[in-house]
Recover the amino acids of this structure.
């Protein structure tokens, strides 16, 4: 889904990942699209940039996605060269063509997402925000509610199609899990203790934009002290750590995930003896007192933090019967098989589709002279 309303977890809260392969690229961007380019100039509307089995892909849709991706990619307000613009538009059009191929397959199998399914997913996206906050999110991303609904429908449709054609056909047996574990035992041997931590952080360091749901930001050291103390008081009164972190923490990498930092190795913890000492005294579920955040070079206080110990994983070899080991292996094997089948499935769909890419023809003819 191109409209991303939820930030991505930067550190995984899973210590037993083995050789898990993460597929972070867009769903179809990694595969090369084969486009048949005819030798003669066919007549078509200037508003149409490509067709898939005769169904038009409109220039307005391509330009909308092009502008969105250009805005995300640009760090400085400068216009791309013509070659850069053409290259990005080609990539955007590939994505739209791939989506259209999959959408047509879903329609044929009666798997298009319903209005009720789209409404339910939209409500889920809006749940953490007030109406005003959600509208601000849309404006910041230069999206409309119709854009969100459009992208949600395509995302849900693709998910339904893949579940039907691929995921429902994947089976991971106990024997598969045992075989993998026996061949990769070392991957499940923790060489040192791991601490699964969450953090609420407040600093006086300026930020270009709000990173929490409330848009809350301290601007001076006094403000930071008052804010962190107020948050500590709320935690002590029983309020949920994750909810407080999402609404008020000022660390952009973790605030969207309820402050979750993932697993931190004990050797890493030693870099801040004060935090290490405080955390090692905790039982799972407990929180530290307010601790200063020190600048790595000057060692001066730059803010304040509260840590929560979610769990502690001692060093040592894990057993194949450990539920977490079982879950990690099953997920890894399932993901690997799913990705292989998806690649094969998409190639089959492309081979069966008739694609005419008028933008590619135009760029080729303009430059090949």
């Amino acid at each position: 889904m191109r409209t991303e309303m939820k930030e991505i977890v930067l550190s995984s809260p899973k210590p037993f990942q083995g050789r898990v392969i993460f597929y972070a690229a867009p769903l179809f961007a990694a595969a090369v699209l084969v486009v048949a380019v005819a030798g003669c100039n066919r007549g078509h509307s200037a508003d149409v940039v490509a067709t898939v089995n005769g169904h038009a892909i409109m220039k307005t849709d391509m330009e909308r996605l092009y502008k969105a991706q250009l805005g995300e990619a640009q760090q400085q307000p400068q216009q791309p060269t013509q070659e850069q613009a053409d290259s990005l538009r080609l990539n955007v059009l590939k994505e739209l063509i791939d989506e259209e191929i999959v959408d047509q397959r879903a329609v044929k199998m009666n798997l298009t997402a319903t209005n009720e399914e789209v409404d339910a997913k939209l409500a889920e996206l809006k749940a953490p925000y007030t109406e005003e906050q959600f509208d601000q999110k849309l404006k910041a991303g230069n999206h409309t509610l119709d854009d969100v609904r459009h992208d949600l429908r395509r995302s849900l449709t693709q998910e339904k199609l893949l579940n039907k054609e691929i995921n429902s056909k994947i089976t991971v047996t106990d024997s598969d899990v045992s075989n993998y574990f026996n061949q990769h035992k070392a991957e499940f041997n923790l060489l040192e203790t791991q601490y699964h931590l969450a953090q609420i952080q407040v600093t006086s360091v300026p930020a270009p934009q709000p990173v929490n749901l409330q848009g809350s930001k301290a601007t001076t050291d006094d403000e930071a002290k008052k804010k962190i103390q107020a948050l500590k008081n709320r935690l002590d009164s029983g309020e949920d750590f994750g909810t407080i972190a999402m609404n008020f923490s000022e660390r952009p990498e973790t605030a969207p995930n309820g402050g979750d930092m993932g697993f931190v190795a004990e050797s890493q913890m030693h870099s801040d003896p004060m935090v290490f000492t405080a955390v090692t005294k905790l039982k799972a579920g407990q929180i530290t007192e307010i601790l200063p955040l020190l600048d790595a070079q000057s060692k001066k206080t730059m803010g304040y933090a509260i840590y929560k110990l979610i769990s502690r994983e001692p060093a040592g070899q894990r057993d194949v019967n450990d539920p977490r080991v079982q879950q990690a292996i099953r997920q890894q094997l399932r993901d690997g098989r799913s990705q292989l089948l998806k690649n094969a499935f998409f190639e089959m769909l492309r081979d069966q589709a008739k694609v005419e890419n008028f933008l590619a023809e135009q760029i080729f003819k303009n430059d090949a002279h």
User: Anything to note?
Assistant: The first helix runs from residue 59 to 73. Residues 201 and 251 are 6 Å apart (CA to CA).
